[in-house]
Write a structure and sequence with these properties.
By secondary structure, this protein is of the alpha+beta class. It has eight helices and nine strands. Strands 6-7-5-9-8 form a five-stranded antiparallel β-sheet. Strands 2-3-1-4 form a four-stranded antiparallel β-sheet. The protein is globular and about 50 Å long.
Length: 257
């Protein structure tokens, strides 16, 4: 007769790898089993550092080496823009008159959503090669308007709010131009004077919208992310033409039409 205390076999229980057939030493079997499990795990590839930034392959995208950005003193409305084909032809005629290489050419232009003009070189050329010969090109693109050519690189922008528009009010004259604003801000703000400003202050409104305003906002840009962050932290207000103006990070957005 079987004893009442005899244990019955357990069903549906997974086999113990340490007690597999032919194993005389369960402890050694367990050690081997755990070691095999550890070595069979996939190891993650080492993290790669110092990755080079990707160069855009589409010239129509921002910051391509073929692109030149033309920043005008005052934003040009659409009805002030010349025909693209004629403008490109006149740009290349101006480059040729300056004694540039015969193959150094602008192939196309476009106006972006911020109403800046973008010029494109040939695919085998770069904006940096054309840049030294562009001093008179803004007047070719928009006669009677001043501006600057820049390589289309990543900039970091700051908005200054409630800046006095000009020396006179409501009569359309005396609106401060970017050079005047820049020189004044350098004189009265040491934090601003220490910046490497790559785009002088531009009014966010169209020129014809400024004639009936006392104050408006301007935007300037630096090419250093660290300078940008430090300035926004330490210069929350700036002196501008006799009053304090507040500063904010500026994010490009299409104009309100």
């Amino acid at each position: 007769m079987n004893s009442v205390n005899q244990q019955q076999p357990l069903c549906n229980q997974p086999p113990n790898p340490c007690l597999s057939a032919g194993t005389h030493n369960p402890e050694n079997a367990c050690a081997k089993s755990y070691a095999n499990a550890a070595t069979s795990q996939k190891t993650s590839p080492p993290m790669t550092t110092n990755l080079r930034p990707k160069v855009p392959t589409n010239p129509s995208k921002a910051h391509h080496p073929m692109c030149l950005a033309i920043v005008f003193d005052f934003t040009l409305p659409p009805d002030s823009r010349r025909d693209e084909a004629t403008t490109v032809q006149d740009i290349n005629a101006s480059l040729t008159s300056k004694g540039t290489l015969p193959d150094l050419k602008i192939t196309a232009i476009k106006w972006n959503t911020q109403r800046n003009c973008i010029a494109f070189t040939r695919t085998d050329q770069t904006a940096a090669a054309v840049l030294p010969f562009t001093s008179e090109l803004p007047n070719v693109i928009a006669p009677g308007h001043n501006g600057q050519f820049r390589e289309d690189k990543k900039w970091f922008k700051v908005e200054i709010q409630n800046v006095r528009i000009g020396a006179y009010n409501y009569n359309g004259s005396g609106i401060y131009i970017p050079q005047t604003i820049h020189r004044h801000l350098c004189k009265v703000n040491s934090e601003y004077a220490a910046l490497n400003v790559v785009m002088l202050s531009q009014w966010v409104r169209l020129e014809n919208e400024l004639t009936n305003q006392l104050y408006s906002s301007v935007v300037f840009a630096v090419d250093s992310f660290d300078q940008h962050v430090h300035f926004l932290r330490t210069a929350k207000t700036m002196a501008a033409f006799g009053r304090l103006a507040t500063t904010h990070k500026w994010t490009d957005r299409p104009p309100i039409i």
